[in-house]
UniProtKB/TrEMBL annotation:
GO terms for cellular component: plasma membrane. GO terms for biological process: siderophore-iron import into cell. Keywords: Cell membrane, Membrane, Transmembrane, Transmembrane helix, Transport. It is found in: Cell membrane. InterPro entries: ABC_BtuC-like, ABC_transptr_permease_BtuC. It holds the Pfam family FecCD. Its main location: membrane. It is a multi-pass membrane protein. Belongs to the binding-protein-dependent transport system permease family. FecCD subfamily. This is Transport system permease protein. The chain crosses the membrane at residues 20-45, 65-85, 97-117, 123-144, 153-176, 196-214, 243-273, 285-306, 313-332. One of its GO terms (molecular function) is transmembrane transporter activity. It comes from Zymomonas mobilis subsp. mobilis (strain ATCC 31821 / ZM4 / CP4).
Length: 341
């Protein structure tokens, strides 16, 4: 009886996280079965066991399973990054790309396209994107040392994002042929199609390291609800917190963009959707946002394969169509709140 009571208390305390986790296995099975070649549940089980149709085993092992792993990891990184950014800046419209990491990573990938390295050495595409994300962090670190406050951090991130975007536009403008420009634009829209195990291995370290660093910010984020002065009086080092968040964003978001391109709105809308089901504490939103982000990216990838279009839609297009209405609704609420002051 005591065990059941304890189990009930645990479920009530972690209801949102448990319910989201329960949704993950069926969503993953659906993602593995849907595609140009349908693979049923029994065929999936036989393929996992190493028996059954060799074609199904090949499709599952070389195409769909790496695609699913990349989608889950990218969604989890972007979801938790959005929750951390919104908790730190105390702004529900904050996005993981706010510090310019996504644009800097995209610039690195564009350079790999522009110089033809991605065609000769496919692994150069994710590697250059990851290097670009880290390179974009360096001027931001210098900027924060001189102006140690969140507003300066946002301004520095916006400057890096604008500069990276201008460089991307320059590369598109100077591309040697329209096919190269189209290849760059297609990648910038974000996708997890045709991802291999090389991409999964490349993402493993950024995935675990960024989620570990994001989770360490939870107590300080809760204290920041009361204001910077109160958080500092409680013993939290706010300068160290900023460095921790910036490093985690560079590692996590940079790694995600490196393997999937720029997939927008995941980090914006997932924490916003889940926040009403929590006690409004940032720490309670971190892990649910990670699982919610993984679910959203997987769902969007399933829609990409189900929508009857002549060419497969890019994943970033689908997440944008989902995210823009929510973003617009939140912006209207913010304007209404300002007018009521």
């Amino acid at each position: 009886m005591r065990f059941l009571s304890g189990l009930s208390s645990f479920y009530k305390a972690h209801r949102l996280l448990i319910n989201l986790s329960i949704c993950l296995p069926p969503m993953a099975l659906l993602s593995l079965s849907i595609g140009s070649t349908h693979i049923g549940i029994m065929a999936l089980w036989q393929a996992v066991a190493g028996v059954g149709d060799p074609t199904s085993r090949l499709i599952l092992g070389l195409l769909r399973l790496p695609r699913l792993c990349v989608g889950l990891a990218v969604g989890a990184i972007l979801g938790m990054a959005g929750a951390v950014n919104q908790g730190y800046l105390r702004n529900p419209l904050a996005d993981p790309s706010l510090l310019g990491t996504s644009n800097a990573a995209a610039l690195g990938a564009v350079l790999a396209f522009y110089f033809g390295l991605s065609a000769r050495f496919p692994i150069c595409l994710p590697l250059f994107a990851f290097i670009g994300a880290l390179a974009g962090l360096l001027p931001l670190l210098w900027f924060v040392r001189r102006h140690n406050d969140p507003q300066s951090l946002i301004l520095g991130g916006v400057a890096i994002a604008a500069f990276s975007g201008a460089c991307i536009s320059l590369a598109l403008n100077l591309s040697p042929n329209p096919f190269a420009a189209m290849e760059i634009m297609t990648w910038l829209m974000g996708a997890i199609t045709d991802r291999s195990w090389n991409h999964v291995w490349l993402l493993i370290a950024p995935f675990f390291l960024s989620l570990f660093l994001f989770r360490r910010t939870a107590p300080a984020l809760d204290a920041l609800i009361l204001g910077d002065d109160v958080a500092a009086s409680l013993g939290f080092d706010l300068a160290r917190l900023r460095w921790l968040i910036m490093a985690a964003l560079a590692i996590g978001v940079g790694g995600a963009v490196a393997v999937s391109g720029a997939i927008g709105f995941v980090g914006l809308i997932v924490p916003h959707i889940l926040r009403p089901f929590t006690r409004q504490l940032p720490s309670e939103l971190l892990w649910p946002s990670a699982i919610g982000g993984a679910l959203l990216v997987t769902l969007a990838d399933i829609l990409v394969r189900l929508l009857p279009t002549q060419n497969e839609l890019q994943l970033g297009v689908v997440t944008a169509f989902i995210g823009v209405p929510i973003f617009f609704r939140q912006a209207i609420k913010g304007v209404g709140a300002m007018k009521s002051l």
